[in-house]
Design brief:
Helix 2 packs across helix 3. A two-stranded antiparallel sheet has the order 1-4. It is an alpha+beta fold and about 280 residues long. The chain starts with a helix and ends in a 17-residue tail after the last strand. The longest helix has 26 residues. A hairpin with a 2-residue loop joins strand 2 and strand 3.
């Protein structure tokens, strides 16, 4: 009988608590904008933060309140931007196409290891031990943290460094956040030239660490007819607002760290929602 009484007492408490929760959920419920759910269904759900918001839910809420632009979802590309514009009944705007680029050409034939690492096989873990095992302290560690977070499987590790298949890259930028060396950057899709180096050492030291390193010789500066390149902290930097893609800087680069590049568009049948399946 005592056990039964105790059981009934606990059941009564549970029912009372449930009833209170039900009442409070109705009293303090937050009424959402009906547009928010419709917009959220358009977004891919990658929650990459490329739009500048914490995730797709926050971006959808901002769009529903008309406090955000409809073209900020990079993984969703133009297709999602157009859908959002149609829902909101506003003019369609162009999405800025960007792709991930690994600013390192320190493959196995260009640089060399100075230690043997046997710890946790992640770039973050390896970088915590004297910056990694490579002679170049600025280069790719090649353990694939970026590949692990890429939702479109656009990154692989080949010949010791990360490489991006830009025909698959959706421009979410998740790889840039996870790289401990910060050598992955987002470039405009129309870029025709890129710097494949992140070494900021002086020329002789950089070349000693990697034969493909930028040596800060400023030949690219002199070759560029538009003033689009400047050597800052011993490293060439391209201003893509000025670059016309002539390629003269790449032709004059003595180490080949300036490369002519081509980034193809995503396929026409690209489905942003497939990224989270």
């Amino acid at each position: 009988m005592e056990i039964l009484i105790a059981f009934l007492f606990m059941l009564a408490i549970a029912l009372a608590a449930g009833l209170l929760l039900l009442v409070f959920s109705h009293l303090f419920a937050v009424n959402k904008n009906p547009l928010e759910k419709t917009i959220r269904e358009c977004l891919p759900g990658v929650n990459c933060g490329a739009c500048g918001y914490k995730g797709c839910d926050d971006y959808a809420a901002a769009l529903a309140e008309n406090t955000a632009k409809p073209n900020l979802c990079i993984p969703g590309a133009q297709k999602v931007a157009d859908q959002i514009s149609d829902i909101l009944g506003i003019e369609k705007t162009q999405v800025e196409d960007v792709v991930a680029f690994v600013a390192c050409n320190g493959h196995c034939g260009a640089t060399y290891p100075i230690a043997q690492y046997e710890g946790v096989q992640t770039c973050h873990a390896a970088s915590m031990l004297y910056g990694g095992t490579n002679a170049c302290r600025f280069g790719c560690l090649g353990l694939g943290d970026c590949a692990a977070v890429c939702p479109s499987k656009a990154i692989c590790i080949a010949d010791g460094i990360a490489r991006v298949d830009t025909s698959k890259c959706v421009g979410c930028g998740m790889c840039t956040h996870t790289c401990p060396k910060q050598i992955i950057t987002m470039l405009p899709q129309e870029a025709a030239v890129a710097v494949m180096c992140g070494n900021k050492q002086k020329g002789a030291d950089a070349r000693k660490a990697c034969k493909n390193a930028c040596i800060g010789c400023k030949k690219c500066e002199k070759a560029c007819p538009n003033g689009a390149i400047a050597v800052t902290d011993n490293l060439a930097v391209i201003d893509y607002n000025k670059c016309t893609g002539c390629g003269l800087c790449a032709d004059d680069c003595p180490t080949g760290c300036l490369k002519k590049v081509y980034f193809p568009d995503l396929p026409e049948n690209y489905d942003p929602h497939a990224l989270v399946k």
